[in-house]
C-alpha cells in the first residue's frame, strides 16, 4: 500500500473520536495544519477536543460559533479556526487569513468526517505532504487493521 494512502478510521462513540484526536494532538509538531471537514454533527468539535487534550490544553474547547478563531495554550498553542460561516474562499482573503497563516506550510492533513450511523463515524485521514505521511505512519500501526470491521 502507498505510504500516502488515506487512513480510514471508524469510531463508534464520541470517546473513540476524542481518542483519535488525542493521538493526533500527542503527535503534533509546531506548525502542523489539520483541516477538518464534514457536515453538522459529524464530530469535528469532538475531534478538536481530543486534539486539545493531546496537546495538553487545559481549558475547554467549544465550537467557535460566534468567533472565527480562538487559540488555546498547551504544550503547543492550538489555533482553532472555523471557516463554517464563510460563504466563499474570497472572504478568507478579506479576513486576512493569509496573514494569519503566514509561516504555515502548505502541506496539511485533511480530516474528513462522515456519519455512518447514530454513533458511527468514518474519519478519513488524507496526508498531503511528507510530514503527514510520517505522522500517519505512527497511527497506522494503532488503527489498522480494524479487526472488528473484518467480520
Ligand atoms: N462516533 C462519534 N464521534 C463523534 N461524535 C459522535 C459520535 N457518535 C455520536 N456523536 C455525537 O455527535 C455529535 C458531534 O458533535 P460535534 O459538535 O463534534 O460535531 P461538529 O462536526 O463539530 O458539528 P458542527 O458543524 O455543528 O459544529 C455530538 O453530539 C456527539 O456526542
Ligand atoms: Mg463544531
Feature tags:
single chain; 151 residues; alpha+beta; Rossmann fold; 6 strands; binds adenosine-5'-triphosphate; binds magnesium ion
CATH architecture: 3-Layer(aba) Sandwich
The mean pLDDT is: 88
Specify the biggest β-sheet.
Answer: 4 strands, mixed
User: Largest beta sheet: what is the strand line-up?
Assistant: 1-6-5-2
Could you tell me the strand content as a percent range? 15-25%
Question: In the residues, how many domains can be counted?
Answer: 1
- Mass-distribution shape: globular
Low-confidence stretches: none
Order of helices and strands: EHEHEEHHEEH
Characterize this entry briefly.
The chain has helices at 14-27, 44-54, 89-94, 97-100, 130-143; strands spanning 7-11, 34-37, 69-72, 78-81, 108-115, 121-128.
List the SSEs and their pairings:
Blueprint: E1 7-11, H1 14-27, E2 34-37, H2 44-54, E3 69-72, E4 78-81, H3 89-94, H4 97-100, E5 108-115, E6 121-128, H5 130-143
Parallel strand pairs: 2-5
Antiparallel strand pairs: 1-6, 3-4, 5-6
Helix pairs in contact: 1-2
Please provide a written account of the structure.
The chain has helices at 14-27, 44-54, 89-94, 97-100, 130-143; strands at 7-11, 34-37, 69-72, 78-81, 108-115, 121-128. 24% of the residues are buried. It has 151 residues and is an alpha+beta fold. It has a single domain, classed as Rossmann fold (3-Layer(aba) Sandwich). The radius of gyration is 15 Å and the shape is globular. The strands form 2 sheets. A 4-stranded mixed sheet has the order 1-6-5-2. A two-stranded antiparallel sheet has the order 3-4. The longest helix is centred in the first third of the chain and has 14 residues, at 14-27. Strand 5 (108-115) and strand 6 form a beta hairpin. Bound molecules: adenosine-5'-triphosphate and magnesium ion (MG). Residues 44-45, 63 line the site of magnesium ion.
Amino acid at each position: 500500500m502507498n505510504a500516502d494512502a488515506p487512513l480510514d478510521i471508524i469510531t463508534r462513540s464520541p470517546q473513540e473520536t476524542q481518542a483519535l484526536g488525542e493521538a493526533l494532538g500527542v503527535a503534533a509538531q509546531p506548525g502542523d495544519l489539520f483541516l477538518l471537514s464534514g457536515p453538522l454533527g459529524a464530530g469535528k468539535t469532538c475531534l478538536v477536543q481530543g486534539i486539545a487534550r493531546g496537546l495538553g490544553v487545559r481549558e475547554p474547547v467549544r465550537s467557535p460559533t460566534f468567533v472565527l478563531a480562538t487559540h488555546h495554550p498547551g504544550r503547543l498553542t492550538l489555533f482553532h479556526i472555523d471557516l463554517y460561516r464563510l460563504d466563499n474562499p474570497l472572504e478568507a482573503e478579506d479576513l486576512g487569513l493569509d496573514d494569519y497563516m503566514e509561516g504555515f506550510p502548505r502541506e496539511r492533513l485533511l480530516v474528513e468526517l462522515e456519519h455512518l450511523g447514530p454513533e458511527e463515524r468514518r474519519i478519513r485521514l488524507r496526508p498531503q505532504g511528507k510530514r503527514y505521511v510520517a505522522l500517519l505512519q505512527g497511527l497506522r500501526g494503532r488503527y489498522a487493521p480494524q479487526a472488528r470491521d473484518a467480520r
